[in-house]
Amino acid sequence: MKMAESSEGVEHQIFRVAVILAVSTFLIFLALLVLIEDKDVLRPIDDLFMVVTSGLAAAGMLYASWHSSGRSKSAWLVLAAALAFNTFGEAAWGVIEVVLHQNPFPSVADVGYLLFYPIFAAGIFLLPEVPLSSRERIKILLDAAILIASAALVFWIFLIVPIVASHEVVTLDLAVSVAYPIMGLVLLFALIELLFRKLEPHGRPQLLLLALSMAILVITDAIFSIQTDDGTFVSGGLLDTGWLVTYLLMGLAGVLQASPRQLDASALSGADHDKMSAWLRYLPYLGIGAAFILPIYSHEDLGSVNHLTLVGFIGIIIGLMFIRQKVAFMDSDHLLTLALSEIEERKTAEEALKAERDRAERYLNIAEVILVALDRNARITLLNRKGYNILGYSEGELTGKDWIAVCLRPDDHDSVCEVNRKIIAGEMEPFEYYESYVLTKKGEERFIAWHTATVKDERGLITGTLSSGEDITERRQAEIALRENLCFFQRLIDTIPNPIFSKDTKGVYRGCNVAFERLMGMTGEEIIGKSAHDITPRDLADADVEMDKALFDAPGVQIYEHSLVHADGTRHDVIFYKATYADASGVLAGLVGVILDITERKQIEERLLRAKEAAEDAARAKAEFLANMSHEIRTPMNAVIGITDLLLDDGLNSEQMEHIETIRNSGEVLLSIINDILDLSKFEGGMMELEHRPFDLLSCVDDAMDLVAVSASAKGLKMACTVDGLTPAAILGDAGRLRQILVNLLSNAVKFTDEGEVAVYISSRKLEDDRYEIHFSVKDSGIGIPKEKINRLFQPFSQVDASTTRRYGGTGLGLAISKKLVELMEGRIWVESEAGAGTTFHFTIPAVSATLKPASCARSDLQTDLGCDLHILVAEDNIVNQRVTLQMLNKLGCRADVVSNGIEVLAALERQHYDLVLMDVQMPEMDGLEAARAIRRRWPKGPKVIAVTASALQGDREMCIEAGMDDYISKPVRMAELAQKLRQYQRPQKGFDEGD
To answer: What is residue 805's predicted lDDT score, i.e. its pLDDT?
Structure first.
């Protein structure tokens, strides 16, 4: 309040100084006009006064614009611009008159003068208008029209017409001379607008000063126009005081506009209001009088005036006057009616006032806040029912009591008394909002939130205070409890070992726990209020900010790996768990995050990765070992089985045939064991893959039954195959692996069945399109399996009878491999059995039907003597296998040459033509793969190359085909398989030469 009063005092002081300077300037100028008779000396002084006062008036307008707002600010700014143009005109006038010693009329100075009038009038029109009723607007419009018509008539008769009549031709002097009265008329219109539309009934001093200055300027300009036309105008004469006074009054109006407290309407009595507004009512009559009296007084000057124009002006004025009087009569009737109704309304208002007082008292008593009014001595003049209830007193008990002494704590008495004294004395503003304790009658303390304002009388003097208070004791207690809960919550999260933090939507840290401080190597004060860029290296901070932005764009939960750097430079690998949260109104407020330090886990993962790589190296070593073992075992097995096949065809006696058959069977068993072990290794290494080729399903089943037919026949067992009509004849899949599953299940059935039969049942269930689920069942009438031992099936190296004295042999791998193959085909396998009643193995596989010539279960013997005309080259480094292969080919009726490595293969092909090359893969000096590539480079359409290899692991076949070979046979080579391969190429190949 002191500051406001001080500011107002400064503004009033500025206005008082401005008034003193204005009066002093006028008196000094007037004294100079009287004392200085030499016009050559007076003119520079006169022009300087005009320039300075016009400039000061423009500055005053700018000062008013700076202290105004809204439309008023723009209006005063336009007025300042108008005076700036006028100042330019005054300066130009002085330079032309004093420096150049020329006649300044007409000159460039008139440009500044003439621009002043329309711009100043525009500023007047921009000033805010006084709110008026429609009736008041009509009266003001008529009054203004009468004045404008009267002024236009006077200006036309006494200024414009005489000036035009004094010139025979149109010249620049005539145009400028006529422009001034016309611009004066424009300014007069603006003056009328100011008086009737902008000036409030009680008046505004700054606008009254503007109106007075404009009236003086219009009169001065009119005299100037007359003197200029008569040739009697002298620069530096008494007429200049009119312009000087105009500028001084305009400047004072601007300074007064900037004062925060102009003359307030409340400071004026009703009589003053009437006096200030009554003179406006007589202006139209004064205008009419001037319009009629002046022409009569100067009738000799009417000779040059067009009488028709004169009659038109007078007619317009008389018509407007009659309309104005009619409105005035109607207004009088309306006022009488209003006066009569006002008397009635006053009675009604008194009754309503009494009812309103009663209603207000009820409102005060039902209000849910304390309402207390105090006088200047802090005594209670009003306390509502809520206040009495909270303080514990009966109604009316505290009226007239000292509020401070009775209702406040003793510790607060002195400070509250001092504050109350300053508020009553006007030395400080009342507290808009504050909180304090009050004492109840029982001595209990209640915490109240107050809103206080001062109460003033009709003279504006402070008579007391009025306060409304809300009992917030419970809320205060809740806030204290909340703070305690927040402290507890902070202690709680500080005990959590995981780092926790929170941010606002701008990415600024709002809180964290001790674990986060330890992780960052900083204190909470160093973190809270900072962003990621303040505590984290730039690259990590940029990434963190981007992730925060993405989370705020899509509120929810966010989990990602990142890094943090400790204050000592140590980098930690972490996982961020972030989630957004909203405030009580549901608006997104920020995020909370929990950090999991995975630095140690990352180190463990690295160690595990190294261990994994080591395991993979071991697996590769194992695969290489298996490949080598397969090669080393299959190579001699090729000789053993191959020689036995040859011996069985040599007409041996029965005893020799039995011995050779025993050798071959043992070799087959050994080869089966090797194949099972290799298959199991493929599954363990994830290297087992299936082919997807169309094949004849019945032929595949027939081949499987053929492989166990000899063993079944030896035991006198019957074999049967039943296929339902829905089963497709051909399907897409791996025929070899399906045959392997069936052979394992059939072999198992034959092995554990001494009499009866082994049957295969095949049924299908159509799925969608051309897909089927094919169900295979292998049923025997053997010994069966006890239910408690069924769970041991399908386990590697596991059998139902695990004793060392078991009747039946086997490695226990067949069923395990079958189960893995079925699952690899996306099927399932299970068993149904009962001890002594036989066993049925079931498995299903999904399949897609294919188009092939339907096959049947009928069998056909292989033709061993091909009688072909193929010229074959055998590439084999093992001498025994060379002999075995040559004898097999000889029995098949084929001619063959033999070499021991790839270099010799190429040399042989250089010497002569071969239709077919049986190529061993592992050979010294140049292996079979490199030799095959060389053949394809040298002879792209050369001999067919069939790989003969002891390797049987995944990728061996593909590796051979990729090297350029045409087919693949694995060792040991059986004569039937060899014959089947040769039959594909038994047509003689066309010869080729080296250039092919």
So the answer is: 36
Which residue is listed with tokens 């039946």? 808
* Termini Cα distance of the chain: 114
Q: What is the DSSP string of 696-746?
A: EHHHHHHHHHHHHHHHHHHTT-EEEEEE-TTS-SEEEE-HHHHHHHHHHHH
The span from the CA of 456 to the CA of 430, in Å, is 13
Query: In the structure encoding, which two tokens stand for residue 866, read together?
Result: 């091909």
Confidence band, pLDDT 50/70/90 cuts, at residue 843: very high
Is there a contact between 409 and 439 (Cβ–Cβ < 8 Å)?
yes
Instruction: Give the C-alpha separation, 571 to 725, whole Å.
Output: 70
How far is 283 from 759, CA to CA, in rounded Å?
133
The pairing of strands 967-970 and 944-949 is: parallel
Structure tokens at 395: 């109604």
- Residue of 994, 993, 894 whose CA lies nearest to 946: 894
Q: Tell me, what's the pLDDT at 50?
A: 84
Residue range 408-448, pLDDT digits in tens:
888 888 888 888 777 777 777 776 677 888 888 888 888 88
Express each pLDDT in 824-839 by its tens digit: 889 999 998 888 788 9
Cβ distance 1 to 430 under 8 Å? no
**Between these two residues, 43 and 695, which has the higher pLDDT value?**
695
What residues are paired with 780 via a beta bridge?
A: 758
Average pLDDT, the chain: 76
CA 345 from centroid of its chain's CA atoms? 63
DSSP assignment of 481-540, as one string?
Answer: HHHHHHHHHHHHHHHSSS-EEEEETTSBEEEE-HHHHHHHT--HHHHTT-BHHHHS-HHH
How far is residue 782 CA from its own chain's centroid? 74
pLDDT tens, residue by residue, 38-58: 777 777 888 888 888 888 888
Beta bridge partners of 830: 842
- Neighbouring-strand partners of residue 60: none
Query: Which long-range CB contacts under 8 A does 230-235 form with residues at least 24 apart?
Result: 234/39, 235/39, 235/43, 235/46, 235/47, 235/97, 235/104
C-alpha to C-alpha distance for 488 and 131, rounded to whole angstroms: 62
At 206, the amino acid letter reads Q
In DSSP terms, which residues pair with 575 in a beta bridge? 561, 596
Tokens representing residue 581 in the block? 């949260």
pLDDT in tens, 650-661: 667 766 676 676
| Strand-by-strand arrangement of the 557-565 sheet | 509-512, 500-504, 588-597, 571-582, 557-565
List the strands of the sheet with 380-383, edge to edge: 380-383, 370-375, 462-471, 445-456, 434-439
Residue tagged 């790989």 (tokens): 947
Tokens representing residue 415 in the block: 């400070």
Q: Could you tell me if 829 and 841 are in contact, meaning their C-beta atoms sit under 8 angstroms apart?
A: yes
Asked if the model's pLDDT at residue 5 lies above 50, the reply is no
**Residue 189, helix vs strand vs coil:** helix
Query: How many helices, marked H, and strands, marked E, lie in the chain?
Result: 29, 22
Nearest alpha carbon to residue 187 among 124, 106, 110: 124
The two three-digit tokens of residue 233, written as one number: 């105008």
Phi, psi of 252 (to 5 degrees): -65, -35
**Cis before 694 (ω within 30):** no
**How far is it, in rounded angstroms, from Cα 634 to Cα 670?**
10
Q: Is the pLDDT of residue 317 over 90?
A: no
Tokens of 567: 């204050």
Distances in Å between the alpha carbon of 371 and those of 124, 375, 377? 48, 14, 17
214 contacts 121 by C-beta, under 8 angstroms: no
Confidence check: pLDDT of 769 > 70: yes
Q: Which residues of 269-288 are buried (b: 16+ CB within 10 A; e: fewer)?
A: eeeeeeebeeeeeebbeebb
Query: How many residues in the chain?
Result: 996
Q: Which two tokens stand for residue 322?
A: 């009659």
Closest C-alpha to 721, from 737, 733, 703: 703
